[in-house]
UniProtKB/TrEMBL annotation:
UniProt domain Histidine kinase/HSP90-like ATPase: residue ranges: 3-89
Enzyme Commission designation: 2.7.13.3
Known catalytic reactions: ATP + protein L-histidine = ADP + protein N-phospho-L-histidine
Keywords carried by this UniProt record: Kinase, Transferase, Two-component regulatory system
Protein name: histidine kinase
InterPro entries in the cross-refs: HATPase_C_sf, HATPase_dom, Sensor_HK_TwoCompSys
Length: 94
């Protein structure tokens, strides 16, 4: 999950025009760890056509490999938000 935070902060610094603040929150509850990264900048308009790297794709793949859920996109109050939730223990593990 640390790598996800690192990549999200790097992406915000690189792509969030006018961002003054980047926050990262990590919580555990009900057998999961949840990470939220939010910036207050302006997201690129052509996010679907951006070809500069594989940051979001790599983050999504890492989270899914761990059995988790991942979202990234414009935040309701402005800026950009990345959210990941991963189970602390895999189902069936002893």
């Amino acid at each position: 999950m640390l790598r996800l935070v690192q990549e999200s902060v790097a992406n915000a610094r690189r792509h969030a025009a006018g961002a003054r603040e980047i926050t990262a929150t990590v919580r555990t509850a009900r057998g999961t760890v949840r990470v939220e990264i939010h910036d207050d900048g302006r997201a690129p308009r052509a996010i679907g056509r951006y070809r500069g790297g594989l940051g979001l794709i790599g983050m999504r793949e890492r989270v899914h490999l761990l059995g988790g859920r991942f979202t990234a996109g414009r935040a309701p109050g402005g800026g950009w938000q990345v959210t990941a939730e991963v189970p602390l223990h895999r189902t069936g593990a002893t």
